[in-house]
Design a protein that fits this description.
The protein is of the alpha/beta class and 449 residues long. The chain has 14 helices and 15 strands. It folds into 2 domains: 155 residues, Aspartate Aminotransferase, domain 1; 259 residues, 3-Layer(aba) Sandwich (Aspartate Aminotransferase, domain 2), CATH 3.40.640.10. It is 37% helix and 16% strand. Bound molecules: ligand PLZ. One of its GO terms (biological process) is gamma-aminobutyric acid metabolic process.
């Protein structure tokens, strides 16, 4: 297994090279057109317009080559334009692009469901259903859990993120920018405490689980709860890895009370954390798992996978949608999954952690603004605070990210308090680029205050 490639299959040199300011003149021209053509409601983190991507590189219209530490928010886990994905998609798009699986089906959909049933935790009988986006998968997981249990309440947790549709906005914790002005929101959603070790100390994950469970018992009533929906590692909430025992205790409570336990693995799934699914770190076998993002190497696809008795409790025709499990997206997913299995994607995520985590910990020693380093595999983050306090420092966080962008390193921020810099490199990231990116991030802390 080598992580150092000179050029990708789509002929992209694996070097960081800036030939203009970031963004360059051509990107700025396109940005002006974007402002005239695209709703102001659609924001952009870094307005460099991309023409080609692969390995660990994003190339823009001005000819700049940037290091991609974001994977389009944890999507291109197998690398952009991964050759397995490209080959499958090209073959499929030339054969047929759509029939609607609910009208006249095709094998690709079934094959993706078979792969999901095989790869998700637990060897019990499973079924899957395919959708277009993460939010849609979560919506459907809730529909399925409600039908199965004949109950209405849905429990979510602090800092949770589940999407931007009406139901998933209600399930998402953070107001700005996701919810502000978009209510009224769906009813029967209840938020309980989550484990956030950096901010909970000295309380343990189990302490917080007890608190959350007591809240469910006292304020909702366990017998009214259809589903508990939790991310095993919270993504938009700030890359929060819950304290030991929290996730498992919530799953056990669900099991004991006939509640469907739904793991939202949309950001953490598909080898991102060094395991196929992050639920496995706590030995949890969720009743249902929602997936999207990394599933199809960049094509829009999402799924709900889980216990056959739960998945089959829905009446025929109750689940679906025109495009869900589109044949081209399924072909992409089969390519991506094949690559993950053949190329030891989980091992690559662990190799990224082995290089990056100690480097971040070393950085922390020099910078009291770095309050916490956390994450698993290729899902790592830095939480910034005002030195000597626990107060979030979103301004410095933004400044570090901006510095990295200017130096040709694409990083994303996250967190309820917007004070977390997160790293989600594609698993095809060559080690020399990873090390270069780490160097730039370290300089980001030297030059900001
Ligand atoms: N659940 C855990 O991370 C998407 C959101 C970006 P969709 N996260 C990125 C943004 O600002 O919109 C996400 C997630 C978890 C659900 C979702 C929703 O997935 O495919 O964006 O609908």
């Amino acid at each position: 297994m080598t992580l150092t490639t000179e050029r990708t299959d789509n002929d992209l040199a694996q070097v960081r090279r800036l030939v203009t300011n970031i963004p360059g003149p051509k990107s700025l021209e396109l940005l002006a057109r974007k402002t005239e053509a695209v709703s102001a409601g659609v924001g952009v983190t870094l307005p460099v317009f991309i023409t080609k991507a692969g390995g660990g590189i994003l190339e823009d219209v001005d000819g700049n080559s940037m290091i991609d530490m974001g994977s389009g928010i944890a999507v291109t886990t197998v690398g952009n334009a991964n050759p397995y994905v490209v080959e499958n998609v090209q073959r499929q798009v030339a054969a047929f692009t759509h029939t609607c699986f609910m009208v006249t089906p095709y094998a690709g959909y079934v094959e993706v469901c078979e792969a999901l049933n095989r790869l998700t935790p637990g060897d019990h009988a499973k079924r899957s259903a395919l959708f277009n986006s993460g939010a849609e998968a979560i919506e459907n997981a809730v529909k399925i859990a409600r039908t199965f249990t004949n109950r209405a309440a849905v429990v979510v947790v602090e800092h949770g993120y589940h999407g931007r549709t009406n139901l998933t906005m209600a399930m998402t914790a953070k107001n700005m920018p996701y919810k502000e002005g978009f209510g009224p929101f769906a009813s029967e959603i209840f938020r309980v405490p989550t484990s956030y070790p950096f901010r909970d100390a000295p309380l343990s994950g189990l302490d917080i689980a007890k608190r959350a469970i007591s809240r469910i018992d006292k304020e909702i009533g366990a017998t009214n709860v259809a589903a508990i929906v939790i991310e095993p590692i919270q993504g938009e909430g700030g890359f929060i890895v819950p304290g030991d025992g929290y996730f498992a205790a919530m799953a056990t409570f669900a099991k004991e009370n006939g509640i469907v336990f739904v793991a939202d693995e949309i950001q953490s799934g598909f080898c991102r954390t060094g395991d196929w699914f992050a639920s496995s770190y706590e030995g949890v076998i969720p009743d249902l798992i929602a997936t999207a993002k990394g599933i199809a190497g960049g094509l829009p696809l999402a799924a709900v996978t889980g216990r056959a008795d739960i998945m089959d409790s829905v009446h025929a025709g109750g689940l679906g949608g025109t495009y869900g499990g589109n044949p081209v997206a399924c072909a992409g997913a089969l390519g991506a999954i094949r690559w993950m299995e053949e190329e030891d994607a989980c091992g690559r995520a662990k190799a990224i952690e082995a290089v990056m985590l100690p480097a971040l910990v070393a950085m922390q020693k020099n910078h009291p603004a770095i309050g916490d380093i956390r994450g698993r595999g290729a899902m790592l983050a830095i939480e910034l605070v005002k030195p000597g306090t626990m107060d979030p420092d979103p301004e410095r966080t933004g400044a570090v990210a901006k510095y990295c962008h200017g130096q040709g390193v694409m990083v994303l921020t996250t967190g309820t308090y917007s004070n977390v810099v997160r790293f989600l490199p594609p698993l095809t990231m060559p080690m020399h680029l990873l090390e270069e990116a780490i160097g730039v991030i370290a300089s980001g802390f030297e030059v900001t205050s």
